[in-house]
Amino acid sequence: MNTIKTSLILIVFAAIFSCCGQSNKQNNQNVMHKRLDFNLLEKKAVKEKILGKNYYEYTLEYEGADSSWYKISGNKMDGFIEWETPKLPFFDKGYSEYYGNGTLKLTGKCIGKNLGCKIGIWEYFDENGNKTKEVDEDAKYGAYSYTHLLVFTLHSGHINIDTGEGRENFDIIYDEKEKIWYVSEIDEFYKIRKYKIDGETGDVISDETYQGGNE
Q1: How far apart are CA 203 and CA 157, in angstroms?
Q2: Beta-sheet pairing, 118-125 with 131-136
């Protein structure tokens, strides 16, 4: 892929995540009022009595009005976790934690299957809903950012920025101390490819392929 096309793709990714960040800030102006909907949990969630305890574990998956997909799990003692998977073609996911009383504990966005690549502004709250801090997760990344990394993944043929295809087939972890990206991709034939990439230069340190978990 030539340099001009790569630059255009980077601009597209940057614009997408910039819009998501601005939307986040707008929505989070009143984030102190965001609480877990216990009425929804009681009506719709799967409830399992915790052995030896006088409370339940809740699990709920549902589609939101904007076609985002939500999954909530947890209990009133340890708290709850909520994942928001946006409609295609977006690659970022929303992640929130709640205290057992339903008050928002923390919220932000990430890329990949887990929390190895947090992006944008993350906000933190106490049990009364008061904001205690904000963290700009983008500030910790080197010159080779997650937008560059997504372009790299695009080149491998496993994702499509127009359709969002493949967004569930890769995971990203960033080692802040070493400034190194770890990327894992899996295709429809269960072939796993793992990259180790320099977070400053974008140089590929290692590239390994496995079939069915075997080298």
Answers
A1: 19
A2: antiparallel
List pLDDT tens digits, range 66-124.
889 999 999 999 999 999 999 988 889 999 999 999 999 999 999 988 899 999 999 99
Q: What does the alpha-carbon distance between residue 194 and residue 199 come to, in Å, rounded to a whole number?
A: 15
Q: Rounded to whole angstroms, how far apart are CA atoms 15 and 126?
A: 32
Euclidean distance between CA atoms 210 and 195, whole angstroms: 12
Full DSSP string of 55-80: SEEEEEEEE-TTS-EEEEEEETTTEE
CA–CA separation, 42 vs 98, rounded Å? 16
213 has a pLDDT exceeding 70: no
Residue 52 banded pLDDT, cuts 50, 70, 90: confident
CB-CB contact of 167 with 192 (8 Å)? no
Q: Are 100 and 79 in contact (CB under 8 A)?
A: yes
pTM of the model as a whole: 0.82
So where are the chain's domains?
A: 3-10+142-211, 24-140
Please give the order of strands across the beta sheet that includes 204-211.
170-175, 180-186, 191-198, 204-211
User: Residue 182's beta-bridge partner residues?
Assistant: 173, 196
Provide CB contacts within 8 A for 99, sequence distance 6+.
Answer: 79, 105, 127
